Amino acid sequence: MQFAQRLQPLQSNVFADMDTAKTKALAASKELIDLSLGSSDLAAQPHVIDAIAKSLNDPSTHGYLLFGATQAFRIAAATWYEQKFGISINPETEVLPLIGSQEGTAHLPLAILNPGDYALLLDPGYPSHAGGVYLASGLIYPMPLRAENEFLPVFTDIPIDVLNKARMMVLSYPHNPTAATAPLSFFFEAVAFCQQHNIVLVHDFPYVDLVFPNKCTDAINRVSTVAPSIFQADPEKSVSIEFFTLSKSYNMGGFRIGFAIGNPQLIRALRQVKAAVDFNQYRGILNGAVAALTGPQTGVETAVATFKRRRDAFISALNNIGWHVPTPQATMYVWAKLPPEWSQNSVEFCTKLVQETGVAASPGAGFGKSGEGYVRFALVREPLILEIAVQRIAEFLK
Ligand SMILES: Cc1ncc(COP(=O)(O)O)c(C=O)c1O
């Protein structure tokens, strides 16, 4: 059988290799502590589940759902955003429901890139950003993220011949996998750069709420409990589109629900691509999402407090075994620089670690070339289990 060339770059996937290593570890009766996936172990809120359960028993929710019928969800999303950031959003033209934000970010390049056009992506970055560009037959210019630049890209390093063919840039802060945050001043710089070079600015924003208070400050040094949004730097929505998910703040990863907010032309273009592909998420799940966005937000506060507690326990346990890692100010991840003997082989480190100890982590190289030398731990277990994981890591490192 012959397959399209665009499938080629999608064939090797270190996460699939890690999955095999995990299965082998299980088969060898290792007790698995899986910190390799950013899939929250916390439960969705009861009022959300109730809304979905009620919908299941209502046959009027069982059919196809066209855009017009998603209005209640779009209004909830627009209102939720306006209450957080004080920027007004038109739910008819500036909001698009998604079957998870990954679906949206992966489909968007089909609406923007012609074959041979460049997308400027963070390296390391979330794998589906690259996947979507490959599916659209685009080219990728990886913008390296280095610790000395606080894991922010340096726009002036992008070569002019790439810039001339660049049609989109994808940012994502708070950042997976490095857990870095970006100040609003950085977003102002990004918006000005994209306006100057006629580039669509995409901001993937799943960790909007997973910011640990006290430490995170905005551009004018105010303590902030949410991370900055791209529209605070582009209130006219001149070049930008931002992607949100209910997977992280509301522990609804398995329900597959997210949304895009942005420039009406970009929203329309993405909607056109999606119209060829899907019929929107099930109405019952949209009803659950409306309950999540408009109902009590105590679940979000609990999730933030939980990840902060886990972060503190994990970082302090790592410190105790002599592995010194900066304390992340956001997200559910710890991005740890590997000891020198492993600095060129994060995949081997993770494979051996899971096989010998049952602790699964994600190799930095899986997120891009500049991720080599690091490993990502997702804080998706309770502190006690995280401490056991660190004890096993200590044994392994010996
Ligand atoms: C940067 C980033 N984008 C998108 C996603 C996926 O979100 P969703 O569940 O809405 O597809 C994740 C999940 O870990 C992520 O880290």
Give the gist of this structure.
The chain is an alpha/beta fold and 398 residues long.
What does this protein structure show overall?
By secondary structure, the chain is of the alpha/beta class. It folds into two domains: 5-43 and 299-397, Alpha-Beta Complex (Aspartate Aminotransferase, domain 1), CATH 3.90.1150.10; 46-294, Aspartate Aminotransferase, domain 2, CATH 3.40.640. The chain has helices at residues 8-11, 14-27, 46-56, 71-85, 101-112, 127-135, 160-164, 184-197, 264-275, 283-294, 298-320, 346-357, 383-397, and strands at residues 33-34, 95-98, 118-123, 139-144, 166-171, 200-204, 240-245, 258-262, 333-337, 359-360, 362-363, 374-378. The strands form three sheets. A seven-stranded mixed beta sheet has the order 2-8-7-6-5-3-4, with helices on both faces. Strands 9-12-11 form a three-stranded antiparallel beta sheet. The chain is globular and about 60 Å long. The N and C termini lie far apart (48 Å). Residues 215-223 have low confidence and may be disordered. It binds pyridoxal-5'-phosphate.
